[in-house]
Specification:
- α2 (60-128) runs antiparallel to α5, α4 (192-202) packs across α7 (346-381) and α5 packs antiparallel against α6.
- This protein has helices at 2-8, 60-128, 133-168, 192-202, 204-224, 274-341, 346-381, 386-393; strands at 14-30, 38-58, 230-242, 254-266.
- It starts with a helix and ends in a 5-residue tail after the last helix.
- It has 398 residues and is an alpha+beta fold.
- It has 2 domains: 1-22 and 47-57 and 229-267, no CATH class; 59-228 and 268-393, Outer membrane efflux proteins (OEP) (Up-down Bundle), CATH 1.20.1600.10.
């Protein structure tokens, strides 16, 4: 806003005060009929003060500069919109990173507990002679690996929490998990072309490039005004004092006041081809701004397509993982039953457990990725707002 007001100054009057003090030393030599000449010295101080005002009447370059200033404000607002959307994405990402780390730790702990039970069972069967030492060692190895994974998951959770606290600016943030059963919203509108069209017209990066092109075109017009005349209304009021007189009237105190009002016309005739070369430069910059706009539109269109397809792929992955969790649970139950009747060995149980918990962890992460993907899709289209984050918040357990 301040930049726009600076540009407006070129259309408003200017007023200035001037003051000056000077001293002149003049020596007079007067010839007389007598043989001796007479010399006179004059020390004449001069004091001046004036107020000068000027009002532009016709300065097309100043008016174009004012228009450019207003457009620059729009660029700043587009930059602010981009920064706000980026902040929403970073906060949301940090939030879901903590939830994903919590789910990972929960899954690892549950897996470790299940392995501990299987290890106890293997040791008991070995003591009874119903199993070999290999079962116990395999279970022990899996248990040690789960312990290491638990330590890593705990550390990762602490790091993710610190990152969230840093972005939010407050310590001890406790994110809420997704409400069960989880129901992810469908992408609306479900037309990829609509998302691309929206991105190409409303995305902050595209808006900045569009405004930059307008400013470049105005700069060309401003350069062309170098051939046009300028008209200013000028007024001044001044006072001059000479306590010891002037050269024309030595030793006579004088005080003079002056006031003037007039219109000044300035017509440029030749500036060494500076105007013509400036116009050529601005035309080249205008072409660059057009190329930047085209590149920005292509970039946001590609980002929108990638984000949209990523969300659609993520939704399909979530459905597949949900089915995989059920299948893995059924496989684990079948392996447990087979182990009890002696048709399955301990390693089969451990593998089935590992597959189940890994699938659960992947499912949780895929859900968070879908939610983040939808937010990033709206960011790519340039329409992400707090209301979109509020819709995601409604999916959390209260």
């Amino acid at each position: 806003m301040s930049r726009s007001e600076q540009a407006r100054a070129g259309l408003l009057p200017t007023v200035g005060a001037q003051a000056a003090v000077s001293t002149a030393h003049t020596q007079y030599r007067v010839k007389t009929p007598t043989p001796l000449a007479q010399n006179f010295d004059l020390h004449g101080p001069s004091q001046q003060a004036a107020i000068v005002a000027s009002q532009p009447l016709y300065r097309p370059a100043n008016r174009i500069t004012f228009q450019q200033g207003k457009r620059s404000v729009e660029i700043a607002m587009a930059q602010m919109d981009a920064a706000e959307q980026d902040l929403l994405i970073r906060v949301s990402q940090a939030y879901f990173d903590v939830l994903a780390a919590q789910d990972t730790l929960t899954v690892v702990q549950a897996q470790k507990k299940a392995i501990s039970e299987q290890l106890a069972s293997a040791k008991s069967n070995f003591e009874l002679g119903n199993a070999t030492i290999t079962d116990s060692r395999e279970a022990q190895a899996r248990h040690d690996l789960a312990s290491a994974q638990e330590i890593a998951a705990t550390n990762d959770l602490q790091v993710k929490r610190l990152a969230l606290d840093q972005i939010v600016g407050r310590a001890g943030i406790a994110p809420l998990p997704l409400a069960q059963p989880v129901r992810l919203p469908e992408v609306q509108p479900a037309d990829l072309n609509q998302w691309v069209d929206t991105a190409e017209s409303t995305q902050p990066v595209v808006r900045q490039a569009m405004i930059a092109l307008d400013i470049a075109r105005l700069e060309t017009k401003k350069a062309e005004t170098g051939h046009l005349p300028t008209v200013d209304l000028q007024a001044s009021y001044g006072i001059q004092r000479n306590p010891n007189g002037m050269t024309s009237q030595p030793f006579v105190h004088s005080r003079a006041t002056s006031a003037s009002v007039g219109v000044a016309l300035n017509v440029p005739l030749f500036a060494g081809f500076a105007v013509q070369n400036r116009v050529k430069e601005t035309l080249s910059l205008e072409e660059k701004a057009q190329a930047d706009l085209d590149n920005a539109r292509r970039s946001v269109a590609q980002a929108s397509r990638a984000a949209y397809l990523g969300v659609q792929s993520g939704m399909g992955q979530v459905k597949a993982l949900e089915a995989a969790v059920e299948s893995s649970q059924s496989a684990l139950d079948a392996n447990l039953l087979g182990y009890q009747v002696g048709v399955r060995i301990n390693i089969d149980i451990l593998n089935a457990q590992s597959q189940l918990y890994q699938t659960k962890r992947d499912l949780a992460k895929a859900r968070y990725d879908v939610l983040m993907g939808e937010l990033k899709l709206r960011q790519a289209a340039g329409i992400l707002g707090e209301e979109d984050v509020a819709k995601v918040d409604a999916l959390l357990a209260k």
